Amino acid sequence: MIPPFLRRRWVAPAAVVVALAWFVAGRSLWLPSAAHPWVNGALGVTVLVAALGGGLTARELGLERSEVGRGLRFGLAAWAGVAAVLVVVALVPATRGLLRDDRAEVGVGAMVRQVLIVIPLGTALLEEVVFRGVLFSIAARRTTEWRAAAASSVVFGLWHVAPTLSTLGSNEATADATALGEVLLVVAMVAAMTGAGLVFSWLRIRGRSLVAPFVFHAGVNATAFALAWAVVRG
Question: Is residue 192's pLDDT more than 60?
Fold first, then answer.
């Protein structure tokens, strides 16, 4: 019999959030960066299996086979629109600096690895499974889909605090920021990522599949990195 405490609405989402916090801390402290994509990808698969074993259905998680095609169409269409904007940003001299990032100063092989392995498996897979898959589904059982989207998006925004702090100095546009400026930049990033989470959630709901936000997320991040690489080399 499940104890009454564990039946409370906030327990399952809170457990997911706490587990995420421990994972981020442990990964940063004990794992070499080269292992992060593989660990993240394995964790994403593990979380999916655990969610299915724990009672969430394939439909709730956005894994219904019949909806894969619809999700793919939604994801590709959204990706194409944002990619076009990013290309314009890269081509216009006045905005090109927004894409300049020291992390993109790598060779061709490292760039290909980033675009084809690190971003889709190490970033998009884990984040979409956790935020638009498991956390969204747990919350959607307890409230409306859009409230679930809002809640998971806020957590998604907070998820980006640590990586933002660690990379502030690598972007040309933020390298000279003051302490107050860095705080404001982190707050802005959290707000921006919360907004991005809502967009991903919209794709998840409208596309009726986790494929939609995954394709969009991986595609946009990969496009941005490839263009940053081109800007740095150019």
Answer: yes
